[in-house]
Design a protein that fits this description.
CATH architecture: 3-Layer(aba) Sandwich
Number of helices: 6
Largest sheet: 7 strands, mixed
Number of domains: 1
Radius of gyration: 15 Å
CATH superfamily: Peptidyl-tRNA hydrolase
Number of strands: 7
Strand content: 15-25%
Shape: globular
Order of helices and strands: EHEEEHEEHEHHH
Helix content: 25-40%
CATH topology: Rossmann fold
Strand order of the largest sheet: 2-3-4-1-5-7-6
């Protein structure tokens, strides 16, 4: 397997359309558009494999809650013998405005519990990630309440464009590699 691409989020219909599940949504859309069925379940993950842009990929979402993401992903990476440098996490980011994306080669958790779990279980911060901006909470909102909220109707057009942009970033990463995709898309994002 060349890549393991993981959409972070929470399980169940209660969380399906929340800001915290945008990473899970992006990976599900990538699977659908690529004809890869997420029909296998093992290690508390739902996943499927196939080829995208000539790369052998496993696309996965976890069946665990966000703060336990690493407990599902590390065993899946081990099963497919994918090094952390080829485990790409896709997740929501409050420190980016709604509509912005950042592709990174590694780094700390930045307060994100799902990423913290991945770092702990993979044993390294050196795994790539696509951070999807969901914006900061409005005054009076706690961060946890905000990420567990659904997008407002007025935000839907931005969210739809954001998902399309995220899919483009992932396609370019698989076609051209991490560094070229970072250079192209992070510069474009400003």
């Amino acid at each position: 397997m060349d890549w393991l691409i993981v959409g972070l989020g929470n399980p169940g219909p209660r969380y399906a359309d929340t800001r915290h599940n945008i990473g899970k949504h992006v990976v599900a859309q990538l699977a659908e558009r690529s004809g890869i069925a997420l029909d296998q379940a093992k290690f508390d993950a739902r996943f499927g494999s196939g080829r995208i842009a000539g790369q052998r990929v496993c696309l996965a979402t976890t069946l665990k809650y966000m703060n336990e993401s690493g407990l599902a992903i590390a065993p899946l990476a081990g099963f497919y013998k994918v090094s952390p440098a080829r485990v790409l996490a896709v997740y929501d980011e409050m420190d980016l405005p709604l509509g912005q994306l950042r592709l990174r080669a590694g780094g700390g958790a930045g307060g994100h519990n799902g990423v913290r779990s991945l770092i702990r279980q993979l044993g390294t911060e050196d795994f790539p990630r696509l951070r999807i901006g969901v914006g900061r909470p409005p005054p009076g909102w706690a961060g946890a309440d905000f990420v567990l909220s659904r997008f407002e109707a007025a935000e839907q057009a931005v969210v739809e464009a954001l998902v399309v942009a995220a899919l483009e970033v992932l396609q370019d990463l698989l076609r051209e590699g991490l560094e070229p995709a970072m250079n192209q898309h992070n510069r474009r994002a400003g």
